Amino acid sequence: MQTKSLRQIIFSVLFLLLFAPGAQALDAGGLMGMLTSQLGVSEQQASGGAGALLGSAKGNMSGGEYDRLLKGAPDLAGLPTESAAAAQPAKSSSWGGMVKSASSLMGGQSQTMTQAAALAEKFDQLGLTPDMVAKYGKVMVDYVSGSGGADLAQLLTKALPL
After folding, report:
1. In terms of Cα–Cα distance, which of 33, 53, 52 is closest to 43?
2. Domain boundaries defined on the chain
3. Cα dihedral 53, 137, 153, 38 in deg (nearest 10)
């Protein structure tokens, strides 16, 4: 009789852990959990901002490097590398315009400045300020370091236009 009760208790606890509301908190160590909790952003902002940064980094990597990054940091594979905000009609972004103006005053637009302006515009469309780009980058590098190791984190750091 005791064995049956113990089995029922174990089953009940497992059921609650797997299917109870808030079970998603078990994934708090994932990238989206890290972004939302550390930066206080919505899931849409977390996904859109991380996707924009990953898309920018992807352009600065070889195909093999990018594949290695996705294998070592699985949460990145599901990100939209073109944020949902980018699919909306373009609106004038004061942040992106300021970055472009500053770049032209310094004698032209480097690739990094162009990428920074594009990221500022995407983050603006998500309701985020340009200073959030660097904060997202830090969280993403921390996530990659924890899931894929220091080599992959260094690869991502070099590819991010920060």
Report:
1. 33
2. 24-90+132-159
3. -120
